[in-house]
Amino acid sequence: MSQHCSCSTISRHHEFLREEVHCFPRFTHRGIPSPPGYNAPQQVHITQGDQVGRAVIVSWVTPSEPGSSHVKYWKDSGDGSEPGYKERYDTKYIYEIGDGDTARWFSFTTPPPIGPDASYTFGIIGDLGQTSDSNQTLEHYHSNTKGQAVLFVGDLSYADDHPLHDNNRWDTWGRFVEKSVAYQPWIWTAGNHEIDFLPEMVLPSNVVTKLFVLYIYRGKLFHSSHSCTGITPPTKHPKSTFPLWYSIKRASAHIIVLSSYSAFGKYTPQYQWLEEELPRVNRSETPWLIVLLHSPMYNSYDYHFMEGEAMRVMFEPWFVQYKVDLVFSGHVHAYERSHRFSNVAYRVSNGQCTPAYDKSGPVYITIGDGGNVEGIANRFTEPQPSYSAYREASFGHAMLEIKNRTHAYYTWHRNQDSEPVAGDSQWFYNRHWYPHEEP
């Protein structure tokens, strides 16, 4: 990050909109070009702007100097004539950023009101990067018209895999994902490639950490008055103690985001936050309880084997106690889905101290198969553990279609197949309202 970047941020909150303008050093990658026109807005992206889905954050970069600080938006009524300054759920809006010949137009659809039977479809992507495999993953997801928002389980740009953590790779990645994230919110999770620790990096004076620095300050979770930014995760929960862990509600889901690479032991801020957050979940309002983190708690690949064990020991008893439905993670560059097991009630009577079926346990899904830059993970531990229902070394993405308070339909799609083909599929039954064993 350049210490000479002169940046400004302007935020204004409307019923469904918070508008922001950011600047960042100019860079044009021939494979992922900037939009035409001097100082045209780029890397446009939206995300949920508050915990309950009544706001949208629109962010963008003006690469050469601060540009227009305004968003024009209106309800899509066909002729574009109706102003959009009133709260409406389940409504499509058109928005415009930039001025004159550099103005750009996008759209988003607001979520349904929070409620136990509010149907909604999430895409799930992890470890995306910016390779040909990444492009195929994003194109496949982009072609699926069901997706309304993305749950992203960490490892975004892989800028740190390039010499001196090439910061330009954040810009090219921001332009790469714009085709999706400018139109629907992505809910971000930080991965190990967001740690981005480079002691020799020259940072602005207002940067107070050297860990996750580009993720946090590009993401601007604190909405400070001056910041160079490019990727904007959701605004922090009012009761969150740090921007890497937070929760949101959307439709019938309560989504908790955790940080695998921040302290989580007893009495740490993340531990204390989660201890207070889980009892706040109202399953009569948001029956589906979903957790996002980067390093999988269960993993039967040789890659990163048992790296998530410490967090599993700390938090799995809570996941079972509060009947978490699904836990999504990345990190391992492949795909795996578990049965409903836990290590809370393991089998000791026969000497097998291994996970056992637990009807209150979550399904753990590893989906770090977005494309990355390091290749596919293709070595398994053998034999396949009893808790592992399905695993495959292929790139892809997943879809979670929440139907109502009791049922959700899940599919995983390989890159090498056409989008309608599901490599893996499963009906999930809600742990609170319908705690039966899935077929």
TrEMBL record:
Its EC number is 3.1.3.2. The keyword Metal-binding applies. SUPFAM superfamilies: Metallo-dependent phosphatases (SSF56300), Purple acid phosphatase, N-terminal domain (SSF49363). Keywords: Glycoprotein, Hydrolase, Iron, Metal-binding, Signal, Zinc. It is an enzyme of class 3 (hydrolase). One of its GO terms (molecular function) is metal ion binding. It catalyses: a phosphate monoester + H2O = an alcohol + phosphate. InterPro entries: Calcineurin-like_PHP, Metallo-depent_PP-like, MPP_PAP, PAPs-like, PAPs_C, Purple_acid_Pase-like_N. It holds the Pfam family Metallophos_C. Residues 121-335 form the Calcineurin-like phosphoesterase domain. It comes from the Eukaryota. Residues 361-418 form the Purple acid phosphatase C-terminal domain. Belongs to the metallophosphoesterase superfamily. Purple acid phosphatase family. This is Purple acid phosphatase. It comes from Stephania japonica. The lineage of its organism: Eukaryota, Viridiplantae, Streptophyta, Embryophyta, Tracheophyta.
